[in-house]
Amino acid sequence: MGETAAEKAATAKRDRVFLVVVDDSAERDVALRYACLRARNGGGRVALLRVLEPVGMIEWAGVGVLMAEERREEAEKLLSGLGAQVQEITGSLPIVEIREGEPRDQLLALLEEDPRISILVLASSTGSGPGPLISALTGRYASRVRVPMTIVPGGLDDRELERVT
Amino acid sequence: MQVYLPIAEMSVDAFLLMGIGFGVGWLSGLFGVGGGFLLTPLLILIGIPSPVAVASGANQTLGASVSGLIAQWRRGNVDAKMGGVLLAGGFLGSFAGVQLFALLRRIGQVDLAVSLFYVVVLGTVGALMVMESARAILRRRGAVRRKLHEHTWAHGLPLKMRFRKSRLYISIIPPALVGFGIGVLSAVMGVGGGFMLVPAMIYLLGMPTSVVIGTSLFQVVFVAANVTLLQAVQLGTVDILLTLLLLVGGVAGAQFGAAMGTKLKGEETRALLGLLVLGVALSLLWGLLRPPGNLFSAGPAL
């Protein structure tokens, strides 16, 4: 076949997937924008993971079911909105994953199960400490992460993001 | 270890009280409920006079609900405006309920009335819970979808108000009425009323489920506080020693319950709770139907 190293690199670049965890923090948008810009400039796709909080025990089963349903609908609405943003920047729709449980555990499980994901993009909090996910994945759970991680400073503005991507 | 309860005017085993507090606290930690609807009838069953049992139940509910409310408030799951309307109704309702309670006490029918309330309410609630869980366990649930923004006669009522967090634009009359009803029940039965308030908010008012738990706790905390205060001031029926012993058990139980809550299987536990509620209702019913030990007792004439 005689594929050159440059051609190989080009296909690999197109196939890579940047995973962004969609939580309710302010840094989420920075991580998402960074991932989109990297995907646009260097090739690749964006994947979004939204982890729902489990409903827990409610005395009425019907209420619990309704609650789980509404949370899922809300997550779908949020992800389709973000998906439109991703498409605007990268030109393709993101891979979307909705799971239920503890965010950290679900993220690690997804990384183990889905071999397409190549880079995990997280943004650090602008307050004190980098945020719970980053602390966990760089600390106690560091050995369980199977992909490289990119930590984007949460305080970067759009121009700075353009520059570093 | 027997202790004398000054207000209830009787001696009971302190460990029995702590055990009841623990059991009810465990359930309230598990389900995130106040637990008054189990505590009050259990106290009545071990022979505590109804007025004291009701006042102590309200007090216990208050303690269990405050920490829940704080957690929900921090996460922004409380619709304070809706809570305020419910609460206005709730205050009126609990005031009316305590007056009703005082009247029943004057004519000497308070034990009968409280037991009847419990038999009817717990019987209905328990039966519904068991049926619901049985259906879910048997996997015969039809996909019943709720229509959002269904227009009913309730939308024609005046005094409309916008509730931003609940995404509703409705008259304040239905929520105030719901609050009033729960307030009356709270005063007469010594419950917070969350287990009836939550379905009422969803199915009657059409609130989104995300704010329902927090907002119901908001109403429950203030109404239970009001009931405890009114019962203490007007009727003098809050037994400090009794509530203290119950709280000691309750706090420990709630910790265990909250820790176990995430590990248990939902449907089976719910079915058990339903059976427990039904069991309490049946034993109260038996207490009403059973021929009394002494057939005649002297009391004030009506």
TrEMBL record, chain A:
<dbReference type="Pfam" id="PF00582">
    <property type="entry name" value="Usp"/>
</dbReference>
<protein>
    <submittedName>
        <fullName>Universal stress protein</fullName>
    </submittedName>
</protein>
<feature type="domain" description="UspA">
    <location>
        <begin position="18"/>
        <end position="153"/>
    </location>
</feature>
<dbReference type="InterPro" id="IPR006016">
    <property type="entry name" value="UspA"/>
</dbReference>
From TrEMBL, chain B:
<protein>
    <recommendedName>
        <fullName>Probable membrane transporter protein</fullName>
    </recommendedName>
</protein>
<dbReference type="GO" id="GO:0005886">
    <property type="term" value="C:plasma membrane"/>
</dbReference>
<feature type="transmembrane region" description="Helical">
    <location>
        <begin position="12"/>
        <end position="38"/>
    </location>
</feature>
<dbReference type="InterPro" id="IPR051598">
    <property type="entry name" value="TSUP/Inactive_protease-like"/>
</dbReference>
<keyword id="KW-0472">Membrane</keyword>
<feature type="transmembrane region" description="Helical">
    <location>
        <begin position="168"/>
        <end position="189"/>
    </location>
</feature>
<feature type="transmembrane region" description="Helical">
    <location>
        <begin position="271"/>
        <end position="289"/>
    </location>
</feature>
<feature type="transmembrane region" description="Helical">
    <location>
        <begin position="240"/>
        <end position="259"/>
    </location>
</feature>
<comment type="similarity">
    <text>Belongs to the 4-toluene sulfonate uptake permease (TSUP) (TC 2.A.102) family.</text>
</comment>
<feature type="transmembrane region" description="Helical">
    <location>
        <begin position="83"/>
        <end position="104"/>
    </location>
</feature>
<feature type="transmembrane region" description="Helical">
    <location>
        <begin position="116"/>
        <end position="138"/>
    </location>
</feature>
<keyword id="KW-1133">Transmembrane helix</keyword>
<dbReference type="Pfam" id="PF01925">
    <property type="entry name" value="TauE"/>
</dbReference>
<keyword id="KW-0812">Transmembrane</keyword>
<keyword id="KW-1003">Cell membrane</keyword>
<dbReference type="InterPro" id="IPR002781">
    <property type="entry name" value="TM_pro_TauE-like"/>
</dbReference>
<feature type="transmembrane region" description="Helical">
    <location>
        <begin position="201"/>
        <end position="228"/>
    </location>
</feature>
